[in-house]
Amino acid sequence: MTMYDIQKIRAEFPILKREVNGKPLVYLDNGASAQKPQVVIDAVTRGYAEDYANVHRGLHYLSNLSTEKYEAVRGTIKTFLNAAHEDEILFNSGTTEGINLVSYGWAAPRLQAGDEIILSVMEHHANIVPWHFLRERQGVVLKWVDTDVNGDLDPQAVIDAITPKTKLIAITHMSNVLGTVVDVKTITKAARENGVPVLVDGSQSAVHMPVDVQDLGADFFAITGHKLYGPSSSGAIYISKERQAEMRPFFGGGDMIRTVAKDVVTYNDPPHKFEAGTPGIVQMIGLGAALEYMMDVGMENISAHETALRDYAQDKLNGLNWLNIQGNSKTKGAIFSFTLEGAAHPHDISTVVDQRGIAVRAGHHCAQPLMAHLGVSATCRASFGMYNTTEEVDKLVSALELCNELFN
């Protein structure tokens, strides 16, 4: 695709043709989960209707075909993330499983009481709770780094938190609440000099901008398929060969073994060593179709479109002097979390704008430490994707003006 044709892109997402409450759907909940283009829907339908069989174990035609399509996705993700090797890509059900794999397979056998994990206050619960398990069970210390008044995370503040006891930095690449993009590369460079691995939650960033894991220098980089215009229960985590060699398997079962006897077990080579049991075959094939679609559109083109959309939305929303927007980072992506002055709860706001056919998210967004840091219990969030338009921004603004009239 040589130019960004927004109408052509919108036409490729069937759900955008529907109405909600008698109004054309305006879908602004992409930070939670993105809609699916027809090519993904077709890939999933074909996977079940024409090609389905279990992978890796069979010698018959359908098993070979299914295995070929399934394993091809590893190469697609390698290209999408610019990893050096296909076997650095581990399939899973999404970022939550990927981070838990690192917690159980890499961190748990290596960390002891008093060892430290550095987190930012912006982390999603998926990048907090697995580390709390280690705090509860092994006495690991969680060290928190706050954002500044603009919602920026100073990489030097993360670096300054490193001590001889620091064993891991687990950091988001892009906040799902503030939209802040973190300077991960500066953090990983200093961390490597101190012998500290870095795990990056790429759930939000990978869908909005080009990602190069080799350039970022991350040891672990997790992505989740349902935010990448792919199926739910699909995802992957990049783990460098160096870190894979330090890991024990987390899940045990079929396909991750080489031999099993009554008194011994030997394991398969990575990545299959970390992928036990029958996987989400069709889901992963659907994710491959989604990533190929995005790369065909061009990640630079998607990023440019969303940057322009962010600037337009920021200008319009800043004009509402009764709207409190959380986070004003210069690196901000097209994510806006806000509250209204007065008594309106974010749930009330969400309900009113839903009557206009506009889908936004209301709540703590699985980021309760950040909510506490911001001094709020919840916000509304409008998060934009590759198919959103300036006209939809205008509809959101009009709906928020109605909310202000109703509640203030």
UniProtKB/TrEMBL annotation:
Enzyme Commission code: 2.8.1.7
Name the UniProt record assigns to this protein: Cysteine desulfurase
Organism: Neptunicoccus cionae
Reactions performed catalytically: (sulfur carrier)-H + L-cysteine = (sulfur carrier)-SH + L-alanine
Family of the protein in this entry: Belongs to the class-V pyridoxal-phosphate-dependent aminotransferase family. Csd subfamily.
Cofactor names: pyridoxal 5'-phosphate
GO biological process, one term: cysteine metabolic process
Keywords (A to Z) from UniProt: Pyridoxal phosphate, Transferase
Residue ranges constituting the Aminotransferase class V domain according to the UniProt record: 26-396
GO molecular-function terms, A-Z: cysteine desulfurase activity; pyridoxal phosphate binding
Function: Catalyzes the removal of elemental sulfur and selenium atoms from L-cysteine, L-cystine, L-selenocysteine, and L-selenocystine to produce L-alanine. Catalyzes the removal of elemental sulfur atoms from cysteine to produce alanine. Seems to participate in the biosynthesis of the nitrogenase metalloclusters by providing the inorganic sulfur required for the Fe-S core formation.
TM stretches of this protein: none
